[in-house]
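INFO worker-7 received task bundle
INFO bundle size: 2
INFO processing item 0
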Amino acid sequence: MLGIFCGTDITSNEEYKKYLKKRNYKLAVLFLIGVVTLVVSILAQRLWKVNIPEYILGTYMGFGSGLTAASIVLFLKNRRLLKEEERLRMARVELSDERNRQISTEATKIALMVLIIAMYLVMLIGGLWYPVLMKVLCFLICLFVAAYGVAYKIVSKRI
């Protein structure tokens, strides 16, 4: 199974090694974001005594620890792949397989459609009690449509 942001046209193991090394740098940034989120939430709870409900601080701690753990696991997985040529080749083939990329694209389209419909329904129903919720979700839907239009123009010029 490919992730939402996975899939590439890499054809050699050397290119794939460079790709994995770049991903490891991105994972290091993700690790730092997770640690910062975790530390800030702990400081807000213990030292700063911020007037925020406990469940929100717990949510921040969960996000921070989740990002930190996920980045460590993926970093170690990539390091292991870089050391074993056969696994590296198999992972590269799976990542660049056209069928897997098409399945991932279709699944992403379906998930995106469900997300937009859910946001629209929450905007309509939740907006009756929380007008700010309606404004935020409406903005996010408009942001998505605008970002899609800009991205489509940029990508169509590159391809």
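INFO item 0 finished
INFO processing item 1
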Amino acid sequence: MGKIKINKKIIIPIILFIILVLTIIVIFLLKNDNKISNSVNNIGNKSLEEIEKYILNISSYNAELEVTVESNKNTNKYLLEQQYSANSFKQVVREPSNIEGLEIIYENNNLKINNTKLNLSNIYENYNYIAGNFLSLDSFIEDYKKEKESQSKNYAIKSENNYVIMEVKPSNGNKYASYKKIYIDRNTGNIAKLVIQDINKKNLVYILYNKIEINS
């Protein structure tokens, strides 16, 4: 039998084409695997128990939020920035303009209030501030943990529409912050809002988180 002649001009483009196809397939599989991995980590696929554990283990956060405070006479709105880590909390007012730049800083058991416009500062030593600041997310977390650890019936977690809702009724007897609820968006995995109600379940504070970075 005669030898088969291989035309190099034809075989080289074929080999290059095969390599190209294999490369595309590998890239596609890697991307698809990454999407699958991300979807597994997405909060939408987690159980209520896993979501609860994730929220209760928040050790730090940075947030930009809109706060609406309602009273019998009027409604006030604020734009705030918050930074929280262990034993440290900072809140800066961005709006309204008349108190823009007002800072509240709690660190090492000391509370410091700065008015950057007027260049004024007050310091209060040994101040138990973190537990009393119901505008902070960690205050909700502490209340929820206490009720859960005491095995009371004053806390719950449920799924409703596109949200996971964690709610707590603190046993501290504060009639102005009797009920607290946070809403976690299942689609984004982010905390969307915090609602604080008085003893009559009337909205006292409504916090909308425009941006929040957790444990970053």
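INFO item 1 finished
INFO post-check item 1: Helices lie at 8-41, 48-56, 137-149.
INFO post-check item 1: Residues 25-41 have pLDDT under 50 and may be disordered.
INFO worker-7 idle
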